[in-house]
Amino acid sequence: MSSQNSANLVATQDNKMSKENRHLADFNPNFWGDIFLSSLAEMVCFLSVNILYAKAHLQYEELKQQVRRMLVISTDKPYQNLDIIDAIQPLGVAYHFEKEIEDALHIIYHHHCNNAQIDDDLYIASVRFRLLREPGFNVCCGKFKESLISDVKGMLELYEVAHFQLHEETILEEALAFTMFHLKLAETTMDYPLSTQIANALQQPLRKSLPRLVARSYIPICEGYATVDKNLMKFAKLDFDMVQHLHKEELSKMNR
Is 7 inside any structural domain? Predict the structure, then answer.
């Protein structure tokens, strides 16, 4: 019995000595951090998001090329792209196609100079004037007939045009007052989306707006028009979402 107690005492003393002689290792922090501690669900979610983003980016590039092809203008029909250029700008995607838009506007400008007597309706004349005046083409405001107040879309474009007036262009000063008065009346009688477009323009004309804010309000308006190209709408939505995602990433990095 005494021999067993002696053996236990020796074992206990050896155990204490081994604990006292044990050294603590001062290892450097793990290079990988806690990445391998993430749950399987988190990893699957991360991979799924990246796969979806890759698919969205592929669709984004395909749609961009389709819109680019739409902007290839024919010299025989220079005004065919007025509507598409007019839609691209407020949708917030014009920065992707600056060269194509510039080339198209040069063709439209030269055609207009060589065919100055063409009697366009108010809408076409106003869109053409605004698209050419904004980048600095030398275009004359001409005369706008007050008898065309029944053309509400044309009057809305004329209202936007009036904000591009230069010094002593009294005709545009008169057009601004005239269109503002009649658009306020039309706003209550027009159906959606034109009524909303008029309300937004009266509150914040394109000339005084920020492109991203315009795109945010204009995308749902464009969806209400059957004439707007479906691929252009898809591209505008994807572009808006991707730019928003980029801004969020930048803000996240700044807050670290």
Answer: no
